[in-house]
Amino acid sequence: MDEQLTQRQRYQQGLTVRRAVLGDEHVDNTLAALSPLNEEFQHFITRYAWGEIWTRPGLSRHTRSLITIAMLIALNREAELKMHIRAAFNNGVTREEIKEVLMHAALYCGLPASNAAFHLAQSVFAEYDAGRRSDD
What we know:
Elements: H1 2-22, H2 24-32, H3 39-53, H4 61-75, H5 78-90, H6 95-108, H7 111-129
């Protein structure tokens, strides 16, 4: 019973952080799309990624955003990268800092990966400037 309460608390804490980082619209869309197939996975993400890792005191959300962007470039995960570039603004990350991560990634992830990330970041910046922050 105690463990179940802990799981619920972790989920609620994760949901709060997930909303703060990704935005209410993104989280609401994700919750609206819950299905028997993905519900357990989404709860897992909320509890562990957002409720355990993103809440740890050792790194700021700002730093976590920069690290996450770099790792997603290395893994070539375009959809997640786009989402986390958007989210980085919610954590106080600047365009200049994103540019520096993309430059740094060119050395360690390769020029093609960094080039693709630059194009993707440019599209996110254009959406942001136009007032559109869609999750496509």
